[in-house]
Structures
1.
Amino acid sequence: MPPDFAALRKQFPTLEHWAHFDIARKAPLPLCVEASMQSYMKDVYERAGETAFSMEETDRTRETVARLVGVPAKTLAFIKNTSEGLNIAALGLGLGSVDKVLITEFEHAACVFPWRRLQTKGVEVDVVRARNGGLPVDAFMEQMDDRTRAVAVSWVAYGNGFRTDVPALAKVCRERNIVLVVDAIQAVGVLATPIAELGADVVIAGGHKGLLSHIGAGFMYCREEIIPKLEPPYAARFSFAVDDKWQEPLTLASDAHRFEYGNPNFLGIWVLKHSAEFIMSIGLPQIEQRIRELTTYLYDRAEDMGLESCTPRPWEQRAGIISFEVPDPGTVVKKLHERKFITNVKDNRYLRTATHFYNTEEEIDRLLDATMEILRGK
Ligand SMILES: Cc1ncc(COP(=O)(O)O)c(C=O)c1O
């Protein structure tokens, strides 16, 4: 039986007030998040934090999140946010003046600054430019040479919503011994492909978008063979193979623990566990299917109304984001907000909609009617 998406809307109190098309910024949190925050405090009050506020619980959450995203638990580290994971990758590769990195023009600032910072060490950072609104694997290949050590790219771009063909790019990178680092925050919780099947080396996502969780806790997956090749920029007690702080020689953990260091965000990780369980109770493939239906409806309805999207149409080249290049998108977003629609403006260029399973066709109709009215100056 397909999930009862209409009934699931009741899990999101925000939806009583807003037609919410902005999960690409932050999720309208479900009730399980509130309940888990309360249960965390109950654990602290009644059990002195034995459960939620503990390292053992963090390892249990690792198992849960690993199951949701489709990776072995030992390849998963908890991080604060996407930027932290990207910094761990950028600094951990030990790149220097002979090395080259490819990023793309679609990257969020979080996936530009950590790499550009390496320019001070003499690393060359080349930008792959879009072709027809997308980033074909050929465009990467043309810019690769024997100095290229890493490629960093979003699975789904934050602006126009383009979905990179990560499995194809991963194959090309693997053949050339290039490390592929993927910013997956706009894809996790939306696309059901198990992350280990992508073939990428490092995949990173914060928890506050498609994972329906709170800010401050996310994950970094690192392919097992790559873990020993990444030198963590920070290392402390949780990064090492044993607890003995005087051990000789000092040996970093062989699993993804090596990217963790001190006490983590226990509350954020506890919440993440409950959000992951909530998503699994609905089913990630079912969620992807519903987002596909809704966004296809949005795409087609908009086109019927004369509103051309700059997001590629085929599902394989996009996910939940559909963007429009309209005049003065900031004002359109503001006016939509006055009418109780949450959308977003990106780069003063895109009016961005980000649909999730809790949206409805009726909301999409209203959103498009309101957008057209605003664009016609009404
Ligand atoms: C593609 C992408 N990467 C990263 C981020 C955010 O990274 P951080 O939470 O580290 O600021 C966003 C949006 O917030 C994003 O859209």
Note: Residues 81-83, 108, 110-111, 154, 158, 183, 185-186, 206 surround pyridoxal-5'-phosphate (CB under 6 Å).
2.
Amino acid sequence: MTAFLHIDMDAFFAAVEELDHPEWRGKPIIVGADPRGGQGRGVVSTASYAARAFGVRSAMPIRQAWQRCPGGIYVRPRMARYTAVSEKVMDIFRSFTPRIQPISLDEAFLDVTGSMRLFGDPVAMARRIKDRIQSDTGLTASVGVSAVKSVAKIASDLEKPDGLTVVPEGGEKAFLAPLEVRRLWGVGPKACAVLERLGIRRVGDLQERSKGELVRIFGRAAGEHYLNMANAVDPREVHDDEEARSISHETTFLADVQDPEVIARTLLWLADKVASRMRKQGVRGHVVTLKYRTEDFRTITRRATLKQPLEHTNDLFETAKRLWKRFEGMGGKVRLLGIGVSRLESGGANQMTLFDRENRNREGAAEKAVDRVRARFGNRALFRGSLLDERT
Ligand SMILES: [Mg+2]
């Protein structure tokens, strides 16, 4: 028997703010971009449950949030604090199983199949983990329990906050049948609209359709995927912690940007942020992703896989610039830029020439010094030469 838990912290960023500011308890808290009196750009990261009662949702433009809830408490994200709490939570998970796959700061899959002898059945384990989170951090999480990974994820969302939803093995299809198709993994608003036109609103409606029909409409990959998800067929395993991890940083511009100078400076700033976090964690990575959002809200990513892992600001900056070149021809303005590094490995000697290594060691030492200064005096104290003016 296989058992997966999907654990998701409840309104995580907002819950941490509420924890740190007891006077805000029960009030509508909106973590995200600066609303600037309804003129702000960027989006809501997380809304507390009290804010959700006003119709505020994560990923909603911050202006719209302001319209719906002008009396809310608007706070900028404090990522360092959330990361610290996240590490505590992930440590709790790791004390129950080494097979964990973090999906984001506040969400992870746990394969607990091998831990039952030690900790009891998956439901007992889910209760213990929830209790530990509550006592160690003061926060609540919702858990889904299932033999099928994708079903565990859907389950964790059903009884939020502080939920525990158990899907018995063999009962997955019956569990999914009454749910709306939008709950299925990978079924976005577009697919939902098409499905609705076919008379498919519930997962149960989808379960009754033939593979041939769905493949004809959506193409092979998507058609098969929807049918598999509806029928709780999900062969994916929990990936290893190491593989799944990535380090990334992104920024939304106050006004859409086209100036190559500003873009280059921003890429350098992002590369520096990501590289400094990589150094702090003692890792380097093989895959660099550049994320780009256009003024009309399309999000595009470009990826480079490197033979040699990188760890330094300059290498990351150069790679990001190369990726950027592929966008440049498209014209148009940029709304958001992000850089991510994945396929991380812990630092260790790699296959560099001696010359390379010497050079890099020197650069590495310089960057470590930068990190030390930054740790003492804060981020603004030390910006690279071409970054002197403050970025948003
Ligand atoms: Mg969450």
Note: Residues 8-9, 12, 106-107 surround magnesium ion (CB under 6 Å).
